[in-house]
Amino acid sequence: MRKIFSNYMKQVLQSDSKNILFLGDIGVGSFLKEVEDESIHVYNMGIAEQAMVSVAAGFSLAGFNPTIHTISNFMINRAFEQIKIDFCYQGLKGNLVSVGGSFDYANLGTTHHCPEDILLLSSMPTIELFIPGNSSELLSQLKYAQNNDKLSYFRLSSFEHEQNLNLKPGEIINIRKGTMAEILAIGPMLDFALKACEGLDVTLNYCNSLNPIDLKHFTDYSIRKPLIIIEPYLEGSSHYSLSSQGVVLNYPIFSFGFSKNFYTQYGSFLDALTYFKLDSGNLRKRIQEAVNG
Amino acid sequence: MSTKNIEDFYDGHSSIDVMLSEKNLYQDQIALRKLTQRIIYVSALTQEGHIPSSLSVLDIIYYFYKYVYSLSASKSLKSNFILSKGHASLGLYAVLEYLNLLDGLNLDDFCKRGSRLGGHPDKNKLKEVKVSTGSLGHGLPIAIGIAAANKFEKKAIKTITLIGDGECNEGSIWESAMIASKFELKNLVCIVDNNKSSDRAIKITNFSERFQAFGWKTLQINGHDPFSILSALNYKHDENCPLFIEALTTKGYGVFEMENNPEWHHKSPDMNTISTFTITR
User: For residues B77 and A28, what is the distance between their CA atoms, to the nearest angstrom?
Assistant: First the structure.
């Protein structure tokens, strides 16, 4: 996904001088030429994340379209106040593009983990939240939202699903139908959910953004069956995001995401998934337990 | 680069002499006295506001809006002003009200329910406020973004931001000091209202040397002297770098009982006591 992002940014930076990219000393290798080119706006701001976000807000105030790219913990946690006050409260447009969400940097330890990014950003009233499941979805989302009038968050992931789906912005797409429960898989979790649901009498739906999202999907619910959300971040984040957008979920909800514990193992993102029981095998067991009550 | 005291370069700049004629100086002092009384009155009425912080920057804000902002609107060089130390809002509002720049609002409504005049200036509520401030350490980096954008677009706009010395306890100020140099922002001015608020926290001395170390041009002025203020605001430097002005001020300036008295930092007087204050302006 990082390659797709950098290729896309190079195009938009060349095509419109109002686009400006701030790097938090991440992805610099992809923009070596651009950083030196005074005719386009790419700046490595080092690890001054708080000032970087505020400076980007200043550019937005002056009519530019800023994109900020760095590791999610440092952009979202360290500079959250700047996102909240400088961008969200002042209603400024821009793009936050993160890497390292949840445990993509599992090997680097807790200081580089960020499963809470979606929950934190969901607490802001005006931000779009994109959780692309693969590079193709990311590209589609960037084209849709990178230059709109909103603050948009794009959560790049080191893991991608292999399905070729063509979602419209905010769409919830049906993958398979069943009767005992609805599974809603989000972003990179789709393949794990697909494998977990094999042979089970459950509906599987998929989405890759929380805002925009087809809110009507939840009010069209006529059968009281459990909704099981499989999400690649802190469990409950999607539920909170939907509730805060006015969705009343009056049927049993299960949020299968990362639990609220520090993860102190090293290894890969897949190891972390297993640890938090989000691999296909564990998901299957948990789905069956949820369905059987 | 050495720090310049304003007297080192002030050569009787003719336009400043014109601006600050004896008549104008006298009228400005009358105005500043009234503004001081206005600030105390509003704070007593509403039981809100940071009086001493507002008074330490009152001269700077007044002279900027009266002689720089108002004049620049019709000239080729415009100026933006960002009050990064947003808790000095009473100082800002009082000046804007006096100069009819407060959207016709009445400062008596300060901090009242439904009012557009809150404890910190809000861009969403007031036309003259470019940036919502209040959380310290935000105004300067946002000013940098605005100034850099104007530089890229070759717009002749100077961006001036006013920070506090206490505000410089925020790490983002020093991140910003680095970044402003990186962008070589000759169109950016940062004024620090050095009223020694930081003395009670993480004391900061040698402001000018510190900002010089980050590549800024620096000046040091008396933050209550009109000639110093106007000369600094009109200062033109050759170097391709931002300008830092250390304004030496007195917290609570102009009110004897409040000067350098920490008791008054966020305290409002009772209405029946405001006539007892000794206004020294």
Answer: 36
